[in-house]
């Protein structure tokens, strides 16, 4: 199992890569099927996702709601733009913290890598300020907590 790597490019881009032990089909399904998303896309331990809408088709809605069980929480909304089963997902998302963040366009690719999958996620933010604010949240830690949980499901 490898930990994620996060790099910035230019003023507006963030690129996250991570290898998974499961094949591309399984990792893709885990990123699109609500019953799977609710098992792993939780960030730090103790959080749950009681609401998960993932209409995996172009124009389909995305809505994830997280809670820490102690009155804290936030949600994400978005739309799918393009899907190529088992290899590529393009969507737009915005976090509501509680006010919505600017749109983040995300392209996620899933490529065979030996007996596993190499995931490459490229985020496109509207400007350098929005990217800096997003990176300042320490999001990579919650992402890795979630991805490690996904690896354990494999």
From TrEMBL:
The record, for SUPFAM superfamilies, names: Bet v1-like
What Gene3D superfamilies would the database entry show? 3.30.530.20
Q: Where does the Activator of Hsp90 ATPase homologue 1/2-like C-terminal domain start and stop, copy by copy? A: 22-152
> What InterPro entries does the database record attribute to this sequence?
ASHA1/2-like_C, START-like_dom_sf
What family is reported?
Belongs to the AHA1 family.
Under what name is this protein listed? Activator of Hsp90 ATPase homologue 1/2-like C-terminal domain-containing protein
Tell me which species this is from: Bradyrhizobium pachyrhizi
Lineage, broadest ranks: Bacteria, Pseudomonadati, Pseudomonadota, Alphaproteobacteria, Hyphomicrobiales
């Amino acid at each position: 199992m490898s930990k994620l790597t996060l790099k910035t490019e230019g003023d507006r881009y963030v690129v996250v890569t991570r290898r998974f032990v499961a094949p591309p089909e399984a990792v893709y399904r885990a990123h699109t099927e609500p019953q799977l998303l609710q098992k792993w896309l939780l960030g730090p331990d103790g959080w749950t996702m009681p609401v998960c809408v993932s209409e995996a088709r172009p124009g389909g809605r995305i809505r994830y709601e997280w809670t820490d069980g102690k009155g804290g929480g936030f949600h994400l909304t978005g739309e799918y733009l393009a899907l190529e089963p088992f290899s590529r997902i393009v969507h737009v998302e915005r976090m509501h913290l509680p006010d919505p963040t600017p749109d983040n366009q995300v392209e996620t690719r899933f490529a065979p890598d030996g007996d596993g999958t190499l995931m490459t996620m490229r985020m496109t933010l509207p400007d350098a300020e929005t990217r800096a604010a997003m990176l300042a949240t320490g999001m990579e830690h919650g992402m890795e907590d979630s991805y490690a949980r996904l690896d354990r499901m494999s």
